Every structure is written in C-alpha cells, then in structure tokens.
C-alpha cells in the first residue's frame, strides 16, 4: 500500500508484492558480554529470550537492532558495544530466510561500524532494505509522560521507517536553528537572516508534512488508539498548501528575531508534540495506568508493523525488551496472540520463562553470562 502524494489528503493505499525476509540465524562475536553466541531460529515466529539481569538478553536485541543500519536500541557509542576482554572489535552476522547474509562489524581502529551484504561492503543505509526493524525498551514505558523531546524523538524514529530522509531533515533543521541563533546574536543583516529563515521554513514544513502523513496512516491500523501530532507548523500544513504554509512560517520567523538571555525562543517543528488517545478507555494515554500505557504502546507497535508490511511488502522484525513488564496475564496473552497473527518476527526478553508459556509458535532461548545455554521449541 502506498500513501497519496499529498500528505494531508485522505489515505489511499495500493498493494505491494510479498517480500519475506526474516532472520534465520544470528551470530554475535565479542558483542557486549557475548564472546560467541549463535541462535538458529528455524520457522519459529516468536523468539523468547529469558535469563537473569546481566545475562546478555538485551544485548541480543541490541545486536539485531544494529541490522537496521541505525545506532541501535540503546543509542550507545559504538566503542562500548565491544566485549570488555576482547580486542575492541565486534561483529553481528545474520542470515535471512531468502539466503541473504548481513553483517555489521566494528574494528578497534575504526571510528564507525560497517556493513556487508552477501560478503560485499555496503552502506549502512542499505541494511534497511533487507529488514525493517522496530523496537520497544523499558525506556519507552514512560514515553507518554516523559519529556516532549523524548516523545518527539520516539515518534520521529517511527516516521523515518517510511521516509528515510526524515531524520536527516530534522538534523538539518536543528543546524539551521543554531546558525540562526548565532546570526541574530552577531547582528547579521536582514538579507542573511531571510536566507536562513527561508531554509528553516521549507525544512520545517517537510518535517511536519511527514509527521502528519504518518499519523494518518498509522491510525488506519491503530484499532485501540489514535495518534495526533500537535504544533504550529503542523497546523499551518493542515490548513494550507505547502507553499502557503512555508510563507506563513517564514513571516513568523521574520517577526521573531529576538534573543532572550542569549537564547532564541521561537515555536516550530522542533517544539511539536505527539499524543496518543486510548479509544477503549476514552482517555489520553498519559493519564492512564502504567500497565495501560504499556498495552497501548505495544498496540501502537502492532499497528506500525502492519503498516510496514502493507506499505513495503516486508515482514517487520519487532524487538520487545522486557516485553511483559507491567502487563497482567490476560493482557499478555492477548498481545502475544495479536503479535503471532502479524506477518512479523518477534524477539522478546523477560526474566521468567513461565510468563511466556502460552506464546504460540515460539523458540525459547536461555541466556546466562553472555552465553546461550539452552534452546527449546514451544509445543503450542
């Protein structure tokens, strides 16, 4: 399915051909506390990794998240991922079910990680064409009540699943805003500021349009909730054509060229916020219980996975760190039933294997001191 070109018009989709690319085997070498760990999946859709704190469960999910080409689910510095008693290098090697080999590796002498696809050097950006990976960690459990900046970054990461240039635009917007603040502080002339403000306006409108498009599309599949994006530029985009929205925001910037305490205080796409409404409870997510927030957050990821499959034809890989925390037994069972019904592969971690006993079509992996100590196939 594909979105109409105009981001604020009703959603239209068209079917894409199927494209099945799940992880069949993954090998971690000198990654975190894993010296050499390998998991062979077979045809299991759900891989459940259990073990004590510090056993290396999350490290496996983090290794998988690097196969997206991004910084990983922890956003950690690349040097910290190498095993503490190793040579400073690491590798994550995976085989997909269409026999593609994908590798992310880091050498001690490097400043960044590198990728190979079928033993050929490849840009990290190419990894996203092999598999679409989305994750939730305990950090996101409070995403509805924590800072606006964290919430905005989380949703912008989801938006970027369908618009790879989205994160680049946000980075460019931030750089332009810093340049503008410096120019105002140094009393730059109006022509110079006009040039910067025009670039800011164009970039901000593009960022806002992508957010609006994503909100409309995700809500098509988000049965129990609704996503909204709120901000000055988003409002301008919804009410006007792109050109008029750019002109309106440019005029706003022209009229707000003051510094307050050496700081530039302006509104815009860099201040926007996302909200989620729980339709079952008829309440905004941020005022519901911790368990209800976790449940609607996983529902959001379910909807996101459906959108990935429908729009791209790919089966997403979903990583859920401490997946069952804050969830009661009934909610847990429903969520894993819903996950199993998806065209997706799910990797989940938890302390207690017993809370996953009803997960269907599962492979249970026990992790201990950075080693895989047991792999058992579910009977469900």
Structural descriptors:
six-stranded mixed sheet, 35% helix, Glutathione S-transferase Yfyf (Class Pi), Chain A, domain 2, alpha+beta, Rossmann fold, six-stranded antiparallel sheet
CATH architecture of the largest domain: 3-Layer(aba) Sandwich
CATH topology value of the largest domain: Rossmann fold
**Class of the largest domain in CATH?**
Alpha Beta
Radius of gyration, Cα only, in angstroms? 22 Å
Q: Low-confidence spans: pLDDT under 50, at least 5 residues?
A: 1-20
| Estimated structural class | alpha+beta
Largest sheet: 6 strands, antiparallel
End-to-end CA span: 33 Å
N-to-C SSE series? EEEHEEEEEHHHEHHEEEEHEHEEE
Count the DSSP helices. 8
What is the number of domains? 2
Q: Mean pLDDT across all residues, rounded?
A: 89
Instruction: Please state the overall shape, judged from the principal axes of the Cα atoms.
Output: globular
Q: CATH homologous superfamily of the largest domain, by name? A: P-loop containing nucleotide triphosphate hydrolases
Largest beta sheet: strand ordering: 2-1-4-5-6-7
Query: What fraction strand?
Result: 15-25%
Annotation, overall tally of beta strands? 17
- Portion in helices: 25-40%
Structure description:
The protein is an alpha+beta fold. It folds into 2 domains: 23-132 and 314-377, P-loop containing nucleotide triphosphate hydrolases (Rossmann fold, 3-Layer(aba) Sandwich); 148-274, Up-down Bundle (Glutathione S-transferase Yfyf (Class Pi), Chain A, domain 2), CATH 1.20.1050.90. It contains 8 helices and 17 strands. It has helices at residues 57-66, 148-159, 165-185, 190-221, 232-239, 242-254, 290-312, 329-341, and strands at 23-31, 34-40, 46-50, 90-96, 101-106, 114-117, 120-122, 133-136, 225-230, 259-260, 263-264, 273-278, 283-284, 317-320, 345-350, 362-368, 371-377. It has a 6-stranded antiparallel sheet with strand order 2-1-4-5-6-7, covered by helices on one side. A 6-stranded mixed sheet has the order 8-14-15-3-16-17, with helices on both faces. Helix 4 (190-221) crosses helix 5 (232-239), helix 4 crosses helix 7 (290-312) and helix 5 runs antiparallel to helix 6 (242-254). The two termini are 33 Å apart.
